[in-house]
Amino acid sequence: MNEISFRTTLYAGTNSLDRLVELQEEKIFIVTDPFIVESGMIDHVVRRIKQHANEYCVFSDIVPDPPVEKVVAGVKEMAEFKPTSIIAIGGGSAIDAAKAMKDFAMKIYHMDAIRVIVIPTTSGTGSEVTSFSVITDNEKNIKYPLVSDTLLPDEAILDAELVKTVPKTITADTGMDVLTHAIEAYVATGANDFSDALAEKAVRLVLRYLPLAYQHGEDIEAREKMHHASTLAGMAFNLAGLGINHSIAHACGGKLHIPHGRLNTIILPYVIEYNASLTDYRQREFSEAAMKYNELAKAIGLSPTNVRSGVKGLMKEIEQLRKKLNMPSSLKECGIDYNHFQKEKGALAEAALQDGCTNTNPIVPCKEDMESIIESMY
């Protein structure tokens, strides 16, 4: 039996930020990063919540890959302020941190239910509609994915105006993260008709609009479509799960300090090849994952003659998109020293194996499988 539930209310389209004007006489804890404050983007929020006697406090000490210490500091401030609502504005780091803060505050300080409203300013993580939050342990150089329905935001505001000025490199990194979310969800063990529909739409939107958003940042239609694709992919993987692409990215991100979306881009073709389990050209029986990759290839307009050509065509489409976005295709291109990489390879494979996303991969990997994929990435 599948439980299909979408618990986050979405506000999208023109003037969607005006939803904040409806908040009245609340204590609002705003979680964000220094750039959102310094750029004045936070004014879009403050101006609206001040209209109806709302008291607010800003916690802006958020950094990429939010470490445990920052979350703890935020929880302490929340305990003192006692908010009725949290507004997270920023990229995935701010949203993940805010979700974790709310969860920890309620468990540690037994605070009453706190509404969480998230406003993504990048189109990538899908964190606005998921029960996931990724927190980093800097001491151990490990990323920990937290998974709980209590982490689901209550509301998400999708305003494309907030992403028009996102730099090209971040547009590419986050956009490829969207693609990875959708493709992994499509073959994950929890996939179903509902998640498949969401994932297929997300993939089609990314392939059409990501190059436009990358080349022409002011193209509001492209930005809006990518914003929607991010949320659709988030809804898909929240239903279906992810896989070893993200497991490896989590492990490598903590150790090698490469942006998450960039890592996903490098890994994705190798994971598709591994999950498809293609052997030789005489192969007549294919894995379920291979057949689904073939179906996805058809859904995006390719015309494969058989399952093998469908899988290969999908991989080629990803590699072509990567080139259009001027993204690296290997860890070597990211400047990773080979000796350092070899030293860390075993630990990376072990961390990926233990990552929660591995549980919903279509094939159960062993450590040697992980090492082989990681070795290919260099």
Automatic annotation (TrEMBL):
<protein>
    <submittedName>
        <fullName>Alcohol dehydrogenase</fullName>
    </submittedName>
</protein>
<comment type="similarity">
    <text>Belongs to the iron-containing alcohol dehydrogenase family.</text>
</comment>
<dbReference type="InterPro" id="IPR056798">
    <property type="entry name" value="ADH_Fe_C"/>
</dbReference>
<keyword id="KW-0560">Oxidoreductase</keyword>
<dbReference type="Pfam" id="PF25137">
    <property type="entry name" value="ADH_Fe_C"/>
</dbReference>
<dbReference type="GO" id="GO:0046872">
    <property type="term" value="F:metal ion binding"/>
</dbReference>
<feature type="domain" description="Fe-containing alcohol dehydrogenase-like C-terminal">
    <location>
        <begin position="171"/>
        <end position="378"/>
    </location>
</feature>
<dbReference type="InterPro" id="IPR039697">
    <property type="entry name" value="Alcohol_dehydrogenase_Fe"/>
</dbReference>
<dbReference type="InterPro" id="IPR018211">
    <property type="entry name" value="ADH_Fe_CS"/>
</dbReference>
<dbReference type="Pfam" id="PF00465">
    <property type="entry name" value="Fe-ADH"/>
</dbReference>
<dbReference type="InterPro" id="IPR001670">
    <property type="entry name" value="ADH_Fe/GldA"/>
</dbReference>
<dbReference type="GO" id="GO:0004022">
    <property type="term" value="F:alcohol dehydrogenase (NAD+) activity"/>
</dbReference>
<feature type="domain" description="Alcohol dehydrogenase iron-type/glycerol dehydrogenase GldA">
    <location>
        <begin position="13"/>
        <end position="159"/>
    </location>
</feature>
